[in-house]
Known about the structure:
three-stranded mixed β-sheet, alpha+beta
Amino acid sequence: HFDLNTAKETEKPFNGTLKKSSENFFSWITSNVENLTEILKYGTKFVFLRNVFAKLFRIPYSYALDLISMHLNGIVYLLNYKNGYPVPEVPEVCRWGPKFKQYLTYG
């Protein structure tokens, strides 16, 4: 379990790029594979639609992001959420966003 509230006082503004953010994101996943869920320990692959990947790294972290993940045959698919099912609001997500972004950019 990762606590993204630990770096609140030292938060820095983001000045990176989509390419650098995505490289840091996947580097973080591979370096923390033992601490993540069981699903990553079995060579799970991730599939993003192009617009989902761009949305994931470009949306301002002050907004909530609704995605759907589906695990099928060892592959995790990330899709845009279409309104139709209620999604519970988790206020911590908006507070954690800048800290997670700072972690990805080595801030």
